[in-house]
Amino acid sequence: MYDILPGENEFYVDQNGEKAASIGFIPRGKDSEGYEVIDVDHTSVSEELQGKGVGAALVKRIVEHAKENNLRIVATCPFAESTISKHPEYQDVLAKQ
């Protein structure tokens, strides 16, 4: 697979010195339970990497990041929202409204 690297409010895949795929987030304050919330607002994957599971791996990494840092997620990115909704093991990181 590809190495997923941390960036400023994002995780990304570097390919030949270029960001070939990324998932970004914006801090959004606290949810109704007092957890810090991040809004996963975009996922992008280069044409070359599409269809290889890179987008799903980026979503998995951001969920891991949320769990590691006791954060909650709101996904306004349609791809991230769809991917998270298909994985019961990701549901515990969703922000309570």
From TrEMBL:
Gene3D superfamilies listed in its UniProt record: 3.40.630.30
Source organism superkingdom: Bacteria
A GO term for molecular function: acyltransferase activity
Enzyme Commission number(s) from the entry: 2.3.1.-
UniProt KW Transferase keyword: yes
Residue intervals of the N-acetyltransferase domain: 3-95
Transmembrane segments: none
Protein name from the UniProt record: GNAT family N-acetyltransferase
Organism: Paenibacillus polygoni
Lineage: Bacteria, Bacillati, Bacillota, Bacilli, Bacillales
